[in-house]
Amino acid sequence: MRIPTPLRSYTGESKVVQAEGATVDGVLRDLDRRYPGLRFRVVDEQGRLRRHMNVFVGLEHVRDLDTPLDGVDEITLMQALSGG
């Protein structure tokens, strides 16, 4: 999984980390075991992807955390930026 710059403090500044899971949420839960607090920055209290977070599986933008993975998918987390 590719990690956006604002979340790298959770991964020891690693840009790319390995994780396992059958779904996007499974991967996020696996990462949270290794990097506590990371999943909370991506998923809200209702178990939904936060509005400012974008997840890509390969080149496909997904919003469903139950999106199945084939075990070799590259996942990219992107955080929307705003400002004025």
Give the SSE layout:
Elements: H1 24-34, H2 38-42, E1 53-57, E2 60-62, E3 75-79
Antiparallel strand pairs: 1-2, 1-3
Portion in strands? 15-25%
**Number of domain units:** 1
How would you classify the helix and strand content by structural class? alpha+beta
Kindly report the CATH topology. Answer: Ubiquitin-like (UB roll)
Calculate the mean pLDDT score and round it: 93
CATH superfamily: Beta-grasp domain
Topology, number of strands? 3
- Name the shape in a single word: globular
Features:
3-stranded antiparallel beta sheet; 84 residues; Ubiquitin-like (UB roll); alpha+beta
Description:
- The mean pLDDT is 93.
- A three-stranded antiparallel beta sheet has the order 2-1-3, with no helix packed on it.
- It has 84 residues and is of the alpha+beta class.
- It contains two helices and three strands, in the order ααβββ.
- It has a single domain (5-79), classed as Roll (Ubiquitin-like (UB roll)), CATH 3.10.20.
Write a concise synopsis of the structure shown.
This protein is of the alpha+beta class and 84 residues long. Helix content is 19%, strand content 15%.
